[in-house]
Amino acid sequence: MSRFDWLSGYLARLEDELVVVHGGDAAGLAPAHCLRLDSEDWGKAARVAAESGYRWAGVWGDPVAEHIVVRACLVNGGDYLVLVTEVPLAHPVLASHTPCFPAADRFERHLHDMLGIGFLDHPDDRRWTRHQAWPEGTYPLRNDFPVSGDSPRRAPADSDYPFVQVLGSGVYEIPVGPVHAGIIEPGHFRFQAVGEEVLRLEERLGYVHKGIEKIAKGRDPVGLARLAGRVSGDTTVAHTWAACMAMERAAAVIVPPRALAIRALLAERERIANHLGDIGAICNDVGFAFAHTQFSRLRENWLRDNQSVFGHRLLMDLIVPGGVCRDPTSQCEKTMQPRHDALSRELDDLLPILEDHTSLEDRLVSTGYLSSNDAHRLGVVGYVGKASGQDYDVRRDHAYAPYDELEVISPCRAEGDVAARLQIRADEIRNSLKLLDTLRWRLPQGPASAPWPKRPVYPEGIGLVEGWRGEILSYVRFDDDGRVARFFPRDPSWFSWPALERLIHGNIVPDFPVCNKSVNGSYSGHDL
Amino acid sequence: MLRILNKIWRIGTLTEPVPRDAELEALGGQVRRMVDRRFRRSLAIRQVDAGSCNGCELEIHALANPYYDIGRFGVHFVASPRHADALLVTGPVSRHMETALRRTWMATPSPKFVIAAGTCACDGGEFGISYASCGAVENVIPVDVKIPGCPPTPQELLLGILAALDGR
């Protein structure tokens, strides 16, 4: 748990670099530790952090009166450090973190498009989240930008985005999307290939930008929880939990132990459902229909149990600020055990078939390789990180209730290929089943929610949850009336999308679907 | 291989009969007559995510699992709008997808119809209309059938599609 024994070392190195720290604050955004910096020291602080091997975990801006408050999150071990600075709205310029942390690239371009912050020394000055829905030079997250926008005409296609081209004999380009051939979310992929080999993949996302950060403003806590549950529909439990955790920390609400245990039940069920679907889909992308059929069957069984026990197949809107709104009866607790055992037996049948299937091995082993070094530099978390040596799990390394009283085992592998990402999912299903059994037996008695106070105690809070894709960070700031003034949900997909560009390098074009599925980034969670 | 065959044999057939729902059937009435006349009971659907949170896509995927097996009704999902009789559109239409959706609709040969799936597609849902969202699908292209739900269950989707297809 949080020790911060490394923080004095970091502060000393900052002092060596003549960085003035205007004050540390361990309470305001607990359990994260805040450091206030001058805006001119923003880049130096990142450089020192990068040299110390910390992981970069996000940056977000918050316009307050005539300033924009910018916060960046760094992680070391299981400790979260938030760097805070201010830039004037009239001249919002900061040093870029991207030269030290490649993970920061799209965040900073997003911040530029949404708030107009200029990042010095950023290697890429192209727009990212902005397509053609609002004009250049206007910034939706600024307070003077109306929610309804001010360009009522149709938004034209973003056809003149300057993709990087590879030139050379025999090099050709494949544009894909935004409307894909399958039943998936929209985005554009631009391949540069020679023969079958991919020389370069460039992603163009932002097509499902729905203005989540903007429309969160002014919501009450219940309304924000509903919105958070739709940041990414497949991660509805974890995003709602993270947003509620942030709000509950700000409001100093003590969530009853029974509610926390039920939240964990929901989160583990969500993890298992998604991993089941993904394992089947990965096999399907290399033509192994048997596994696809079997795993979609297991997933359907699992979702039907969600419906009968919790009343919703995807478990939406069950977590509410202060607790949960549906308490499974003791009857249901008993009926769950045989269902868990049944899934366990099915996996005993099916997983060995997958492991021994040579044609599957031929397609998945060594495909879509992401090195441990790249994974670290790109800040990748979740199964993509765990398959490439990034041994981090919020439930274990920054344990939050109820996981702080449970033994969380997190798998980690070094191979970094599609097969490893599949294996991590299989291991996580097994571990989640164990956790479910423990949670079910230990389900504490008592209320399933706590009353919500009229006003929050602190203005802001941070939520950190291990979703099925990995670490989710959620930041919430309240205004004086207890309504939401700023919401920033950071999905792990922000990091896995750049990883996909990296790991596809040198693979053949026909292997892109299986590589993409093995990463399975969320478009919606990234585009916001 | 024996293990695979053994598993397939032991699981057997799971596909379930579809329950009837008068209300949903009535919903598709008008479209249904058109489909019967023009599509000869075989419907090719192009799914377009125009800004959804991905919840609806998960449930549309489930339509292909062994329990629902939508293929048995002659309904199949195609990779191009040019092969499609109908568009199944999810999400509030994000403004960044506005033109892409319109172009997909124009690329779909007539006669065609549009099914809006999910609460967001029906009325904008949690996202409504904003600088980034056009709200309901009917604000961008004409919609023939609406299937509400957040997300609609595979059964609701199936009934919505069947109501649009099945005239008997």
- The radius of gyration of chain B is 17 Å
Distance between the termini of chain A: 31 Å
- Main sheet record of chain A: 5 strands, mixed
Instruction: Sketch the topology of chain B as an H/E string, one letter per element.
Output: HHHEHEEHEHEH
Query: Most extensive interface, residues per chain?
Result: A-B, 63 and 54 residues
Strand-residue proportion of chain B: 5-15%
Fraction of residues in helix of chain B = 25-40%
CATH topology of chain B: Rossmann fold
Give me the CATH architecture of the largest domain in chain A, please: Orthogonal Bundle
What is the strand arrangement across the widest sheet of chain A?
A: 1-2-5-4-3
Describe the structure.
The complex is a heterodimer of chains A (528) and B (168). Chain A has two domains: 7-120, Beta Polymerase, domain 2; 212-314 and 330-527, Cytochrome-c3 Hydrogenase, chain B (Orthogonal Bundle), CATH 1.10.645. Helices cover 39% and strands 18% of the residues of chain A. In chain A, strand 11 and strand 12 form a beta hairpin. Chain A starts with 6 loop residues before the first helix and ends with a helix. The radius of gyration of chain A is 23 Å and the shape is globular. In chain A, the strands form five sheets. Chain A has a five-stranded mixed beta sheet, covered by helices on one side. Chain A has a three-stranded antiparallel beta sheet with strand order 8-9-10. In chain A, strands 13-14-15 form a three-stranded antiparallel beta sheet. The longest helix of chain A is centred in the middle third of the chain and has 28 residues, at 257-284. Chain A is an alpha+beta fold. By secondary structure, chain B is of the alpha/beta class. Chain B has one domain: Rossmann fold (3-Layer(aba) Sandwich), CATH 3.40.50.12280. Chain B contains seven helices and five strands; from the N terminus they run αααβαββαβαβα. Chain B has helices at 2-11, 22-27, 29-38, 55-62, 98-107, 119-123, 154-165; strands at 43-49, 75-77, 86-90, 113-117, 145-147. The longest helix of chain B has 12 residues, at 154-165. Chain B is globular, with a radius of gyration of 17 Å. Chain B starts with a helix and ends with a helix. The model of chain B is unreliable at 24-28 (pLDDT under 50). At the A-B interface, helix 4, helix 8, helix 9 and helix 17 of A face helix 1, strand 1, helix 4 and helix 5 of B.
